[in-house]
Amino acid sequence: MNRRPPARLLAVSKTKPAEAVAALATLGQRAFGENYVLEGVAKAQALAALGLEWHLIGHLQSNKCREAAETFDWVQSLDREKLIAPLNRFRPESRPRLNVLIQVNVDGEASKSGCEPADVAALADAVAAAPRLQLRGVMAIPEPSPDFGRRRDAFQRVRAIYEAMRTQHPGVDTLSMGMSEDYLLAVEEGATMVRVGSLLFGKRG
Ligand SMILES: *Cc1c(COP(=O)(O)O)cnc(C)c1O
């Protein structure tokens, strides 16, 4: 018997218009993911009346921390120390803390986004010490290998990093991994949140 709660679905709406987000929201979907800060800000503003939850899942430049901290509910792509102080400083007092996942790169040279596994613990400690940020867990985008055995190995490495974080920070509850092609495999390997775009919205042009 699997007694874990079901994984949450993050609908990845990058490149899709606000109307497509609104249509999915009428079916009950609340959480949406965007890769680019300004594109996400525009959609979040256009759809503010719907009270949706916005996640930044793309690379965050330090000069976009202010917009990210003001608009998003979650930043899943925190991968370096430099982002922590500005996100904390710019998070408005009027909003709840900004939820943060540490993005980790478990494929070494094959991928450039995400921090080294060895750097996760220090980053997690620094996020946990920031009063306007809430450390929630780990995000990863393993290399899209055609070999699903390799993908499973990568998910298992991410899971181990997440479990290690949980022993240090017991409030951590989110393991974000798996996309349209491999979300079922990710859930089997312990994902608590899957990020699905093309399967929901159709192929991106
Ligand atoms: C685009 C993207 C997704 C969704 O990808 P699909 O293959 O369309 O499901 C998930 N996570 C991240 C970080 C992405 O950039």
UniProtKB/TrEMBL annotation:
The keyword Nucleotidyltransferase is annotated on this UniProt entry: no
- Record-listed N6-(pyridoxal phosphate)lysine modification sites: K14
Source taxonomy = Bacteria, Pseudomonadati, Pseudomonadota, Gammaproteobacteria, Lysobacterales
Entry's family note:
Belongs to the pyridoxal phosphate-binding protein YggS/PROSC family.
Keywords for this protein: Pyridoxal phosphate
NCBIfam families the UniProt entry points to: YggS family pyridoxal phosphate-dependent enzyme
So which cofactors does this thing need?
pyridoxal 5'-phosphate
Which residue spans adopt a coiled-coil conformation according to this UniProt entry?
none
Q: What PANTHER family does the entry give?
A: PROLINE SYNTHETASE CO-TRANSCRIBED BACTERIAL HOMOLOG PROTEIN (PTHR10146), PYRIDOXAL PHOSPHATE HOMEOSTASIS PROTEIN (PTHR10146:SF14)
Domain Alanine racemase N-terminal residues, every copy: 5-203
Q: What is this protein called?
A: Pyridoxal phosphate homeostasis protein
UniProt superkingdom: Bacteria
Q: Which organism is it from?
A: Arenimonas oryziterrae DSM 21050 = YC6267
State the protein's purpose.
Pyridoxal 5'-phosphate (PLP)-binding protein, which is involved in PLP homeostasis.
